[in-house]
Amino acid sequence: MILQRCLRAPLARSTRYLSLLSVQRSYATSDRSSDKVPTNDPNPPAPVQNVSDTNATPVSAMGIRDAPMQELAEVGEKQRQMQAPNRREPWSRSQQPRERAMSGPRFEQTIMEFQPQPQAAIELIHKQPVRWTQQRVVSCDGGGGPMGHPRIFINVDKPQINWCTYCGLPFAHEHHRKLLQSLPSTSYPLEPQGAVGEVPESQRVSDEPFAPR
User: Fold this and answer.
1) What sign has the CA pseudo-torsion 129, 133, 137, 139?
2) Which of 9, 90, 145, 200 could form an SS bridge with 95, CB 3.0 to 4.6 Å?
3) SS3 41
4) CB-count exposure of residue 184 (10 Å: 0-12, 13-18, 19+)
């Protein structure tokens, strides 16, 4: 009798373990086919229009604006597929494409013009003109304070544009200006272009703790 109890106890524990394991597996397994990186997908899915044609029908703005809310389906669909107003594709492996995220009944009959559309910082930083310097080594702290980053030192000896690895601001030595100007194209503008988000000349070099560089 005692022997039978000793044999049944391990068998019961193993049975409970297997049943628990099967339950955990049912929750742990998932379809990862939808998590493909768009740039590495050889067969990307065809885009499906999610903006309804009824958006072209004028609807009262309920005091939000004077004109009625109205949007052509083609215009709204183009905005829905843009990751940002200044960039179409995602810029991070963990980022969900906007055209995939904003799909389904929840986003039907939605005026895309009034949806949040912040500018992509990865594109805005490349609109910042080069900071020319006479020094061989420059420092960058992103403006200092809680809005900045740890100070790093950048060597600008080489005839190229050297950017901060934290915030992306570009620096170059004045001695290499003519060489960089002779190149057909550069990753950063060499002179101010008046682009959106460009830091004014009066704020580029400052000793104030919260001033941008």
Assistant:
1) negative
2) 90
3) coil
4) exposed
145-151 long-range contacts (CB < 8 A, ≥24 apart) are: 145/209, 145/210, 147/210
Q: In what order do the strands lie in the sheet with 162-163?
A: 131-133, 170-173, 162-163
Residues in the chain: 213
C-alpha distance from residue 165 to each of 16, 108, 140, 158, 184 (Å): 53, 41, 10, 16, 25
Query: Are the CB atoms for 170 and 156 separated by under 8 Å?
Result: no
pTM over 0.70: no
pLDDT mean for each 10 residues of the chain (213 residues): 52 56 45 53 72 76 73 82 86 84 78 82 87 90 79 92 90 93 92 77 50 46
